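User: I'm designing a mutation panel for SpoU rRNA methylase family protein and want to avoid disrupting the core. Could you give me a predicted structure to guide residue selection? Please restate the sequence first so the numbering is unambiguous.

Assistant: Good idea. Sequence first, for numbering, then the predicted C-alpha cells:
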Amino acid sequence: MKKLSMDELNRLSVEEFKESDKFPYVLVLDDIRSMNNIGSVFRTSDAFKVEKVYLCGITATPPHREIQKTALGADETVAWEHVEDVLQLVKNLQSEGYTVAAVEQVENSVSLLDFQPEANKKYAFVFGNEVFGVNQSVVEQSDFCLEIPQYGTKHSLNISVTAGVVSWDFVSKVLGRM
C-alpha cells in the first residue's frame, strides 16, 4: 500500500466546497474556551460538510492564529456566524425548522447508538463549555439531548472529539439512507 498524494485524494477546491450541497445540520458552539478546539471543529465541519458553525458567547472567532493552527484553512471554507445569545439562537433555529439536540449527559438522553435522524429534517447540535457543558436553559429549550456512550472511567470527551463523533455519526446515518 502507498499513501495517496493530495492530487489522488481529489478534494474539492475552496470554491467548489462553498458551492456544494451540505448535509442538513449545523453545529452550535457555546462558550468554548479553547481556540484549538474551535479550529478542530472547523476542520471536522469541512470534512463532514456542515451547513454552518455558530460561535456563541465567549467562543472566539476567526481569523485568529490559534484557531487557524488546527483549522488548517477550514475556517475559510466553512460558513460561520457569531451569535452572542445561544438561547435566542436555539429558538431561532427551531423556528426555522431545525430539530435542536443538546449534546449533554442528562436524564432521559438519547444514546447516539439509538439516534436515527429523520429524513427531510434539519438538525442543530449544541456543544457546551469544556468545564460546564451545555447551559441548562439550552438543555431545557432543546428538542432532545444526545449522549455519546462511554465505557471508561472519564465522564466526558473533549468538545472537538465530541463534535467529530456526532458529525460522523450523523453523516454516516444520512448516507446510509441513500
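For picking mutation sites, this is relevant: The two ends are 30 Å apart (CA to CA). Residues 111 and 147 are 5 Å apart (CA to CA).
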